[in-house]
Write a structure and sequence with these properties.
This protein is an alpha/beta fold. The chain has helices at 8-12, 23-26, 42-45, 50-54, 67-77, 105-108, 115-126, 157-175, 192-205, 264-276, 295-310, and strands spanning 14-18, 29-30, 33-34, 82-88, 129-134, 181-184, 210-211, 223-224, 242-246, 280-285, 331-336, 339-344, 350-354, 360-365, 374-378, 384-389, 400-406. The site of ligand FHN has 8 residues, from loops. This is alpha-L-fucosidase. Its EC number is 3.2.1.51.
Length: 417
């Protein structure tokens, strides 16, 4: 059972993931060699010696990073309800003022400022919840941290856990105000007991702090899907607390060669699928070493944000959908009590819904309140049917939401006979 103070997560629906670290400097390329894998793994995949990698810190100087503008945009323009930043990724570098390890942004870089503190102040100012990503098992800088694709059998993982991981997690929970969640990742060989130690530590300092589905041994507070993997059906496990970490292109950390951006239309439809199936979409940006989000990504998120902010009522705090028996191209549904939201993502002159048995008391365009004419009837075959006329000025347009006010509390979808 979740505490009252954790319920925000179920309603949030859309959050911002930020993968930012020393890998952003390499941007997918080391000494002329490009990585065709996710950019934050470059140290691992291109086998960069630790001493070499550590030297990158001397170049980290993100003078263009503006936490205030970053958070303001995420909240107001993109419609995101929470932000999760990599406090320490697998590379082992702390993006904050850590007393536990000097391999951190304050001690080891010319920039010398605490990124997390700046983010905290901005999140508090704009009322955005803040969580931290922390790689609890993999630490490629610590001799006893795990490293995927290498022999870890001689490592004293407990030593790493006691001397780096837990003390750093404690710092995160004690020095940055209220942390909405810790996003542990890639638990690898962490044992049940070690996972419990981490959980106990977090809950002893901040009992309401949620733990991601990758805390270890499936002992987290919610379910985290595989990266970019969307459950095909509505999912109500974990009391409906779940989240999809996802990318806009194919990498998490910045890669200057990765221009495989999803379109804004595609992201809007993914968001609506996730929301209707009951989950949260944690969508990632990978800032450059200067501290800015690539312009192509900003443009996409601005377009998505326009839809999200104009139709927030049909997204935040909505309930998991029952299964509608048909897949209608360009249509997604979300709902709350007595309301069915029909998201129209491709142009049409009429919305026709078959096998629906509800009575409708009102139909309108959600963002403007413009009322629509509609008919509730039975098809020639005897199936429930609702038809809504789309006004002329919207013919040829896409990405708007029709709200159907229902007499009944829930949608009544009829099976195909
Ligand atoms: O290895 C990480 C990867 O770098 C990234 O942080 C993603 C985000 O979900 N998690 C791991 C892979 O699943």
């Amino acid at each position: 059972m979740k505490t009252k103070n954790q319920e925000w997560f179920k309603d949030a629906k859309y959050g911002l993931f930020i993968h930012w670290g020393l890998y952003s400097i390499l941007a997918g390329e080391y000494k002329g060699q490009k990585t065709d894998r996710i950019a934050e793994w470059i140290e691992n995949f291109l086998d960069i010696p630790v001493e070499e990698y550590e030297k990158l810190a001397e170049q980290f100087n993100p003078t263009q990073f503006d936490a205030d503008a970053f958070v303001k945009r995420a909240k107001e323009q993109w419609g995101m309800q929470y932000i999760v930043l990599t406090a320490k990724h697998h590379e082992g570098f702390a993006m904050y003022d850590s007393k536990v390890s000097d391999f951190n942004v304050v001690k080891a870089t010319p920039y010398g400022k605490d990124i997390l503190k700046q983010l905290q102040l901005a999140c508090e100012k704009y009322g955005v919840r803040m969580g931290f990503y922390y790689s609890q098992a993999q630490d490629w800088d610590d001799p006893n941290g795990f490293m995927q694709h290498r022999d870890n059998s001689k490592k004293d993982f407990q030593k790493y856990l006691d001397e780096k991981c837990k003390p750093q997690v404690k710092e995160l929970l004690e020095n940055y105000g209220k942390i909405c969640l810790i996003w542990f990742d890639t638990p690898m060989g962490i044992t049940v007991d070690q996972t419990q130690e981490l959980i106990d530590l977090v809950k002893s300092i901040q009992p309401d702090c949620l733990l991601s589905g990758r805390t270890g041994n499936h002992m987290g507070d919610y379910m985290t899907t595989g990266d970019n993997f969307i459950p095909r059906l509505p999912y109500d496990g974990y009391d409906g607390y779940w989240e999809i970490p996802a990318t806009v292109n194919d990498t998490w950390g910045y890669n200057k060669y990765d221009t495989n951006w999803k379109s804004a239309d595609h992201i809007i439809s993914l968001l609506l699928k996730i929301v209707s199936r009951g989950g949260n979409y944690l969508l990632n940006v990978g800032p450059t070493a200067d501290g800015v989000v690539p312009e192509a990504c900003v443009e996409i998120l601005n377009k998505v944000g326009k839809y999200v902010t104009e139709n927030g009522e049909a997204i935040y705090g909505t309930k998991i959908m029952p299964i509608y028996p048909y897949d209608i191209p360009g249509i997604e549904f979300t709902r709350r009590e007595h309301k069915l939201y029909v998201h129209v993502l491709s142009p049409r002159i009429r919305v026709e819904l078959l096998n629906i048995g509800n009575q409708v008391s009102k139909a309108y365009i959600l963002s403007t309140g413009q009322e629509l004419t509609y008919r509730v009837q039975r098809s020639c075959e005897g199936d429930g049917m609702i038809e809504v006329d789309i006004p002329k000025e919207l013919h040829g347009k896409k990405n708007y939401c029709v709200c159907l006010e229902l007499v009944e509390e829930d949608p009544i979808f009829e099976p195909i006979k």
